[in-house]
Design a protein that fits this description.
heterodimer, A: about 350 residues, alpha/beta, 6-stranded mixed beta sheet, 4-stranded antiparallel beta sheet, 10 helices, B: about 350 residues, Rossmann fold, 8-stranded mixed beta sheet, 13 helices, 12 strands, about 25% strand, globular
C-alpha cells in the first residue's frame, strides 16, 4: 500500500469556557476533540461517524486549519500542517485540501452568482486558471457536477437544495484538490436527491483520484461511500477499521449499540433484529466521565472502566490487547468482544 | 374511488379518522400553489399509519388541516372532507374543534425546543391543560404533570417538572412533548417527524416509547416521516405521498416486498443500506415538481422511467389492486405482478 496522504496523530482541540463580562476567566474546557489519530490513504474514503457532540465537525474544522489545534500533529504528504508557515505555503496547503459543508442554504453567498462563487478560488489562486480562461473553467466545473453550464449567472436561491450542494462541490473541486473533507454533505437533502449527490461524489472520486474524509451521522450513508470507518464518541475515536470490520464484526459496545439503533428498511426483520438500547443521552464534552467516556451508558461497565481509560488498540475477544492479531482492528474497550450480525 | 372505502377492513366504530379528497391551496401574491390535490387516508383505533413523503409532498399540511391549525391565509381548504369518528370537521365551529384538540386528537412536532415555551417550566406547560380543561387546582395539576413525565420515563420526574425546556436534553424535550400531548388522553396522535432532529440512539428510545404508549392506550397513531427505516420498524399501514396526493397505500410488509408505484420503488432503491455495501445507488432523476406549476397528467411522469404518452395526458387514479393495496399509476398492475 502506498504511503498515507494524511497522517493525523493525537489531535486535540479544547475550547475554553469563559465567565465574566469585563474580566474573563476560563472556568473549564469543552474537550471537543481529545486525542484522535488516523491515516488517510490516497484515493480512499475514510468515514467518520458519531452522534452530535462527538467532535466530528470540529475535527473537520481543525483539519482545514479553520481552527488551530490545542495539540497534536498532522502530516499532509509528509509535511507538517500545523507548524509555522509562510503565506504561500499555507496557500498551497489550502489548494490541496477543500471542504464541502452541510447546509447548502447558508454556505453559499446569496448575493453572488454561481459563476462568482465557483470562480472565487481562482481569484486567490490565479496560477490554476488564468483570467481569460476562468469563465470556461467555471462552466466546465458546473458540467462536471451535473449542472447546466448556462446557469453561471444565476443566484443560489434559484436552485434547489440538491443543486446547491452540487455548487458547493464544484467550488471544492475548482482548485483540483487532493483531499476533500465532506462534513455531512447529504444530511440536509431528501432521500432521492441524497442518492444523486452520493453517486456524484463516488464518480468524482474515481475520475479525479480524490481522497475523502466523509463525516456523517447516517451509518448507511457512511457505509455506502467509505473504505474505512472511524467511530467517534465524545471526542475520542472508539473503534476504527475497514467498512466490513466495523459493520459486520463491531467490537466496541458503542458501535454495536449505534448499529442496532439504526432502523432497517425492511418490515420482515422487525422483531428478529437484536435491539441494543442505550439509556440516557451523551454526557457533556465539557465534563466527560472519567476513564472510559462511554461507561455511563454502557451495559458492560465495571470498576476498571471508571479508573482506567482504554486505549485504541487491536484486542482479542475479552479486551486483551494483542497487537499481533492478524484479522483484528483497533477498538478502545476493556471488554471488547466481536459481535457479528448486528445489522441483519 | 379513494383509499377510504370501507372495503379496506376495520368496522365503522373503529374508524377514527377519515380524510377524503382533501384539496388545499396556498395563495401568495405571486402565485397559487396547489399543496394538496385530493389526499385521502384513514386511521383505525390502535393502528399506526405512516405517511411517507419528501419535503413538499404535503404530509405536514394534511396533518395541520386535520388538527385545524393550518395558517389561513395563506392556506385555504378548497374541497374535501375530514371525519373524526364520523363527525365532519371542516364544517364544525371553531369552539368544537378547539374542544377536540388535546381531548380527542393531539399532535407532536419535529422541533421540540421551539414547540415548548422557553419562559415557563415544563411542568407548568403540561399542568395548564389539567387546570383549564379539568378545572384542577395548581397543585393537583402540577402533581399530575409529574405523573405524566414519569409515564414517558423521564428520570426524577418530580424534580424535573420544575425545570425549564432549555435544561432538558433533546430526547427529554421530545418526551416532555409526548407527555403534554397525551395529558388529556386523546385517542388519535399525530407525530410529525418526531425523531428527525434526534441522534439514532435517542431516536430508537423515542420510537419504542411511542409504540408502547400506542399499544397500551389503543390510540391511533399517524406517523409522518421521510425515513423509510423508521417506517419499516413501526408502521402497520403506509400511505406514500407525492405532490399533494397519496400515490400508494398498502400494509407495510407488502409495500417493502413489492412497491406498486415507481416513486415508491425509486425511494426504496435510493436509500443506502446498512446491511450491504452497494456500488451505485439507483436514484430518481430530476426534482420534485414546483407546486405552483404541477405537470399535467401524472405529476411524477417527468421523473419516471416508465412514463408514456398516457402518463403525460391522464392523471392516474388511486385504485385498489389487491385487498388493501392501492396505487395511482397506469402501470400499477404490471408493477405489482412482476417478480
Amino acid at each position: 500500500m502506498s504511503e498515507p496522504i494524511l497522517q493525523v496523530r493525537d489531535l486535540v482541540k479544547h475550547f475554553p469556557v469563559q465567565q465574566g463580562i469585563v474580566f474573563k476567566k476560563t472556568i473549564g474546557h469543552v474537550r471537543a476533540v481529545d486525542g484522535v489519530s488516523f491515516d488517510l490513504n490516497r484515493g480512499e474514503t475514510l468515514g467518520i461517524v458519531g452522534e452530535s457532540g462527538c467532535g466530528k465537525s470540529t475535527l473537520a474544522q481543525v483539519l482545514m486549519r479553520l481552527e488551530q489545534p490545542t495539540s497534536g500533529s498532522a502530516l499532509f504528504e509528509g509535511v507538517d500542517m500545523f507548524g509555522k508557515k509562510s503565506a504561500s505555503q499555507l496557500r498551497q496547503l489550502r489548494r490541496d485540501m477543500q471542504i464541502v459543508l452541510q447546509d447548502p442554504y447558508t454556505s453559499l453567498n446569496p448575493r453572488k452568482t454561481v459563476g462568482d462563487i465557483v470562480g472565487e478560488p481562482f481569484e486567490i489562486h490565479p496560477e490554476v486558471a488564468p483570467k481569460g480562461d476562468r469563465q470556461r473553467r467555471v462552466q466546465e466545473l458546473l458540467d462536471i457536477v451535473g449542472l447546466n453550464p448556462e446557469h453561471v449567472r444565476r443566484y443560489p436561491h434559484q436552485f434547489s437544495g440538491g443543486q446547491r450542494q452540487r455548487i458547493g462541490i464544484a467550488r471544492a473541486l475548482a482548485l483540483k484538490p487532493k483531499v476533500i473533507v465532506c462534513d455531512e454533505p447529504v444530511s440536509a437533502l431528501d432521500v432521492s436527491i441524497q442518492a444523486q449527490v452520493m453517486n456524484l461524489l463516488g464518480d468524482l472520486q474515481s475520475e479525479f483520484g480524490l481522497s475523502y474524509i466523509f463525516i456523517a451521522h447516517d451509518l448507511g450513508v457512511v457505509r455506502h461511500l467509505s473504505d474505512r470507518v472511524g467511530v467517534m464518541y465524545l471526542g475520542k475515536m472508539v473503534e476504527n477499521g475497514t467498512e466490513d470490520q466495523i459493520y459486520e464484526h463491531p467490537q466496541h459496545p458503542y458501535t454495536q449499540a449505534l448499529l442496532s439503533s439504526v432502523p432497517v428498511p425492511d418490515p420482515s426483520v422487525r422483531d428478529r433484529r437484536e435491539a441494543i438500547r442505550l439509556t440516557g443521552d451523551v454526557p457533556s464534552p465539557a465534563n466527560p466521565p472519567s476513564g472510559c467516556r462511554f461507561r455511563t451508558r454502557c451495559w458492560k461497565a465495571q470498576d476498571i472502566c471508571a479508573e482506567q481509560e482504554p486505549e485504541l488498540a487491536v484486542r482479542r475477544d475479552g479486551g486483551r490487547i494483542d497487537l499481533e492479531l492478524a484479522e483484528g482492528h483497533p477498538s478502545a474497550c476493556h471488554f471488547a468482544e466481536r459481535h457479528d450480525h448486528v445489522v441483519s | 374511488m379513494s383509499a377510504t372505502d370501507d372495503s379496506t377492513g376495520g368496522s365503522p366504530e373503529s374508524r377514527l379518522l377519515e380524510v377524503e379528497d382533501l384539496h388545499v391551496e396556498f395563495r401568495t401574491r405571486e402565485a397559487t400553489a396547489n399543496v394538496l390535490n385530493g389526499v385521502g387516508y384513514h386511521v383505525d383505533a390502535g393502528e399506526t399509519l405512516a405517511v411517507l413523503g419528501e419535503s413538499g409532498s404535503g404530509k405536514s399540511v394534511t396533518a395541520q388541516t386535520v388538527m385545524g391549525i393550518l395558517d389561513t391565509p395563506p392556506g385555504f381548504v378548497t374541497k374535501g372532507a375530514i371525519r373524526y369518528r364520523g363527525e365532519e370537521l371542516l364544517s364544525a365551529t371553531e369552539d368544537r374543534r378547539r374542544g377536540l384538540r388535546g381531548e380527542n386528537m393531539a399532535m407532536i412536532f419535529q422541533d421540540a425546543l421551539s414547540a415548548l415555551n422557553p419562559v415557563y417550566t415544563v411542568g407548568f406547560q403540561i399542568a395548564e391543560q389539567f387546570r383549564f380543561r379539568r378545572g384542577m387546582s395548581r397543585k393537583d395539576a402540577m402533581a399530575k404533570a409529574g405523573e405524566m413525565l414519569d409515564m414517558v420515563k423521564i428520570p426524577n420526574a418530580k424534580q424535573r417538572v420544575k425545570e425549564f425546556p432549555h435544561q432538558f436534553s433533546g430526547g427529554m424535550r421530545q418526551r416532555a412533548m409526548i407527555a403534554m400531548s397525551l395529558a388529556l388522553d386523546p385517542d388519535l396522535l399525530i407525530a410529525d417527524e418526531p425523531t428527525t432532529a434526534l441522534d439514532v440512539t435517542v431516536q430508537a428510545q423515542i420510537m419504542d416509547l411511542l409504540d408502547e404508549l400506542r399499544r397500551e392506550r389503543g390510540m391511533g397513531l399517524i406517523l409522518i416521516t421521510h425515513d423509510l427505516g423508521v417506517v419499516a420498524e413501526v408502521a402497520d399501514r403506509i400511505a406514500v405521498m407525492y405532490a399533494g396526493r397519496v400515490v400508494e397505500e398498502s400494509d407495510a410488509e407488502s409495500l417493502y416486498k413489492r412497491p406498486a408505484h415507481p416513486y415508491t420503488e425509486g425511494l426504496m432503491e435510493s436509500i443506502p443500506r446498512l446491511d450491504q455495501k452497494g456500488e451505485h445507488l439507483a436514484s430518481i432523476k430530476g426534482l420534485p415538481p414546483n407546486l405552483a406549476n404541477i405537470p399535467e397528467g401524472c405529476p411524477f411522469h417527468p421523473r419516471c422511467h416508465r412514463a408514456t404518452d398516457e402518463c403525460r395526458r391522464k392523471v392516474p387514479e388511486l385504485l385498489e389492486l389487491r385487498p388493501g393495496r392501492y396505487s395511482a399509476c397506469h402501470f400499477a398492475e404490471e408493477l405489482i405482478s412482476s417478480e
